[in-house]
Amino acid sequence: MTKLESPHDIKDTAVTLQEKLLGSDIELIRMAEEAFHQLVDRYCQENEGMMVPLQYEVAKDFEYFMRLVDLTLAYFADGYVRPALRELPEEYDGKAVLGKTECLV
């Protein structure tokens, strides 16, 4: 699977899981939640160089996760790949920072 195919597969799977998460069957919702957490783990493993640990925690929110996947799709759409993390100045106090790195996704 290519760098562009995998996010498409992840997004399709997430959309299917969302339908189950919004349902009324408690057991089905629990199974979908577990599958979603595994999907987040997969996404984060495949894109670990594009994320900081804080994003992994926040990605457990469905809407935020879908935004990350959409950004990843846009990032790889033209076949261009660049390092996603860069060093920040000591005085930088942005919210998307953990340590001294910022995620560009």
List keywords for this structure.
about 100 residues; mainly alpha; 3-stranded antiparallel β-sheet; 4 helices; about 10% strand; globular; disordered C terminus
Structural notes for this entry:
With 105 residues, the chain is mainly alpha-helical. The protein has one domain. Helix content is 56%, strand content 8%. It has helices at residues 5-21, 26-46, 53-58, 62-76, and strands at 85-87, 97-98, 101-103. The protein has a 3-stranded antiparallel beta sheet. A hairpin with a 2-residue loop joins strand 2 and strand 3 (101-103). The chain is globular. Residues 82-89 and 92-105 have low confidence and may be disordered.
- Taken as a percent bin, the fraction of beta residues is 5-15%
Strand order of the largest sheet: 1-3-2
The number of helical segments is 4
- Show unreliable segments: 82-89, 92-105
Helix content: 55-70%
Major sheet summary line: 3 strands, antiparallel
- Molecular shape: globular
Task: Give the termini separation.
Answer: 21 Å
Number of strands: 3
Structural class call reads mainly alpha
- The total tally of domains equals 1
Instruction: Write down the Rg.
Output: 15 Å
Average pLDDT score: 77
Helix-strand sequence: HHHHEEE
